[in-house]
């Protein structure tokens, strides 16, 4: 098998057989004017370190350039990207800041989330205020940069030899937004022991209960599971009954109860497709204790100990701790 990924004029490829790679290089250079850069180590801002035990993906160089660009290279260090008592709103009476600079920082941080899931929630919250950013929003963004300053050499570790199993985690923060009272959905997917997908987004509608908020979040997680299932089929892996971990028993019961009653009749139809996939056997909704809910880090600010615990479980490690 040979796998090729093309992004505009950049190509990365790999194979289970070295001769296939050599044949591919010969064919491509015969048709196009291109250069062979050797083993993958840098691609679209992502640094890749390939070892016998696994692969380490990070953006250390990008992070250092980001801090230097916005004069934060010599800043103090923060232990977490967002405080647990941080409640951002439009801050209408607050002092305005440079919109171009604020949007530039947000854009740079969003690209950094490709290898740093630990800042995903914080960046997504700050990104909601790009239309009219105030000093309070800039302070929140700078706290993320201070956090990055103290943890520059971190990235995602993908160990070899893990079992080909896919597990999804779904969580929500009920009425997390204090302005429109909408909840925040968070989800992630673990393939073997490797984090392959993560997501944090404010829900489009107001949920009337924690069960409804969790149900909507589970639907979003289920959609991603189905997409990943289809992608894995291209690699020759057929997975059914993909576990979807949820820490709300009421939401789990809603997915298995086809009867519309007072607690579910108002929920938009598009959120109910998860029931169909549960019946088909594509997904299995399972209960998980809140302590083991990995998606918690994508829904709300967490205390230092809890944040570090989930960060480690997601496979975000320091480069100097590689095996």
From TrEMBL:
CDD domains for this protein: RNase_HI_RT_Ty1
InterPro entries membership: DNA/RNA_pol_sf, RVT_2
Domain of life, source organism: Eukaryota
Residues in Reverse transcriptase Ty1/copia-type domain copies: 2-83
UniProt-recorded name of the protein: Reverse transcriptase Ty1/copia-type domain-containing protein
Organism classification: Eukaryota, Viridiplantae, Streptophyta, Embryophyta, Tracheophyta
């Amino acid at each position: 098998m040979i796998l090729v990924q093309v992004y505009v004029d950049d190509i990365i490829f790999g194979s289970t057989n070295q001769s296939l790679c050599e044949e591919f290089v010969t064919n491509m250079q015969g048709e196009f004017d291109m250069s062979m850069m050797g083993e993958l180590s840098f691609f679209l801002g992502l640094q890749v370190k390939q070892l016998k035990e696994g692969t380490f993906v990070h953006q250390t160089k990008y992070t250092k350039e980001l801090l230097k660009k916005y004069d934060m290279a010599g800043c103090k260090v923060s232990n977490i990207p967002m405080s647990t008592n941080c409640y951002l709103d439009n801050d209408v009476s607050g002092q305005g800041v440079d919109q171009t600079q604020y949007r530039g920082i947000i854009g740079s941080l969003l690209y950094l989330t490709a290898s740093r899931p630990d800042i995903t929630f914080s960046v997504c919250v700050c990104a909601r205020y790009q239309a009219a950013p105030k000093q309070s929003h800039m302070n929140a963004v700078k706290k993320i940069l201070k956090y990055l300053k103290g943890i520059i050499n971190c990235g995602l570790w993908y160990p070899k030899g893990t079992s080909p199993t896919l597990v999804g985690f779904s969580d929500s923060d009920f009425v997390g937004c204090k302005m429109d009272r909408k909840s925040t959905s968070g989800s992630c997917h673990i393939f073997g022991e490797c984090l392959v997908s993560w997501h944090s987004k404010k829900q489009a509608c107001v949920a009337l209960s924690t069960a409804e908020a969790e149900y909507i979040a589970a639907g979003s997680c289920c959609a991603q599971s189905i997409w990943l299932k289809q992608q894995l089929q291209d690699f020759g892996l057929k997975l059914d009954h993909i576990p979807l971990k949820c820490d709300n028993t009421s939401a789990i019961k809603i997915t298995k109860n086809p009867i519309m009653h007072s607690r579910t009749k108002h929920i938009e139809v598009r959120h109910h497709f998860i029931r169909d996939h549960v019946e088909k056997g594509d997904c299995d909704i399972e209960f998980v204790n809140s302590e083991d809910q990995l998606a918690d880090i994508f829904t709300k600010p967490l205390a230092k100990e809890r944040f570090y615990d989930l960060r480690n479980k997601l496979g975000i490690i320091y480069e100097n701790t590689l095996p």
